[in-house]
Structure formats: structure tokens, C-alpha cells
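Hi team,

As requested, here is the filled-out complex form for the 2-phosphoglycolic acid run. I kept the field names the same as last time so the parser does not choke. Let me know if anything looks off before we queue the next batch.

— J.
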Amino acid sequence: MRKMIIAGNWKMNKDIKETFDFLLPLKNNLIGQNLNVEVVVCPPFTSLFIASDILRETNIKIGAQNMFYEVEGAYTGEISPKMLKSVRCEYVILGHSERRRYFGETDEIVNKKVKKAIEFGLKPIVCVGETLEERENGETFKVLEKQIKGVLEGLTYEQMRNVVIAYEPVWAIGTGRNATPDQAQEAQRFIRELVAGLFNDGIAQNLTIQYGGSVTPENAYSLLSQPDVDGALVGGASLKVDAFLKIIKAGETASVEKKN
Ligand code: PGA
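And here is what came back:
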């Protein structure tokens, strides 16, 4: 059965001290617990090293928020998959809508990054999602299909085993307006069926598809208990330990219920 993943996307938040102040209590709360859900924190690059040091020998995983698709060279300001591996990252968020919107990332660029991440043993959390305008124009499925085909283009079945998808409707990100459980379920079932068609049913059934966009302790359980919602990519609510722990707990409850 596929793994439920609760990941915190810190975005451009938390310096070194704030990273300590967040991760120490998180670690103390989760230590020794045998969790069904995989917990991932994605700090900014400057905190990755210290984060992986603090979380050494815990089952909390580290992810980066972006990377470049080259290994090294004259790419001022960029970070490579090799560098992320050296600070013990296991995951990397790719194609987040903020990267697409502010930094011009396209499906083609994201696709190159996905392939490179996997080559270096990183698990990409690949983000897709429609804008409000696209939803209102009835284009949600069309947009998702284009993005999914684009970002997964040319991946082998073997590579697909390392991919995580995050369905993040752009209108729900940072707005306090989450997708309803039904909207998330509908879109995520669509993505799974699409992947079944592009690859095969086994790969689609094993694929973790997270929901992201204004996930809070209050709405997490209703979203995570949907059959095709296998986790959450959490922005704002992942910045406070209490809120993040509550979302992890909601994931744990939903995950145990799905197993039974
Ligand atoms: P949000 O962000 O939870 O603050 O809406 C989610 C994301 O962008 O990954």
C-alpha cells in the first residue's frame, strides 16, 4: 500500500535559530513513535545542513524546496542534486507553483529536474495544480493532464517508483481557502487514473499523491481521509510545531483507518 507523506514546505522562512527552535520540539514530540506516516520537513537551503544534523537518527526526513538539473558548473546561485545529497536530503520539492510563477519554471524544466533528482537518489515531490481562472473555465482536468504528461515525460517505470505528486490548486495556496475534500479527491483520482494510463495500474496504485493548499489542523483529517489523498504538502501551518504535529496526527489517524 502507498505511503502517506506529511511534508512541511517552509518556503522562505526560518533562519538557523528558528530552525533549531522548531526542530528540537518536533523531534522530542515524535521521538520513539512508530509512525505510519512519513514526516518530511523542507527548510530553506541555508538550514538544510543544521536540520539534517538535528534530525540525525530520527525518522523525520529532510527535503529541499528546489534544485537545478545540472550537477556542477557555472550556474551562479543554483544548488545541485549532488549538494542536496551531501546534506542528507531525501526529498526535493519540484515545480512548486511559486517557482513556476515567479521564476518562470515550465513543465519541461521541471521534467529535467525530476530526472536528475531521481538519478541522484532524491525523491521528487512534483507539484501540479490549476489556477482559479482555469478552474472557473472548466479546464482543471485539461491543465492537470498537460502538467502531468509534461513533468513525467520519458520517465521509466523504475523511476516512477520514486516520484511523489502534490496536487496543489494555485487558488488554495496561502489563501486560507482549501479545496473541499471532494474537490481534492476528484482531482487526485483523475491524476491517478491518468498515471495508470501513462504507465500502468501498479505504478498508479503505489503513487503517493499529496494535497496542498491551506491545509490546517482543522481541515487535515477530512482531506487526508479521502481515498486518493495520500498526504499533505503544508505551507503556512507547517511553521508552527503545534499545528504541524496536529496535521501529522490527522494523517496518522487517516492512514491507520485506510489500512483497516
Ligand atoms: P499553504 O502552502 O499551506 O500555505 O497554502 C502550501 C504550499 O504552497 O505548498
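Two things worth flagging: The mean pLDDT is 97. Strands lie at 5-9, 38-42, 60-64, 91-94, 123-128, 164-167, 208-212, 231-234.

Thanks,
J.
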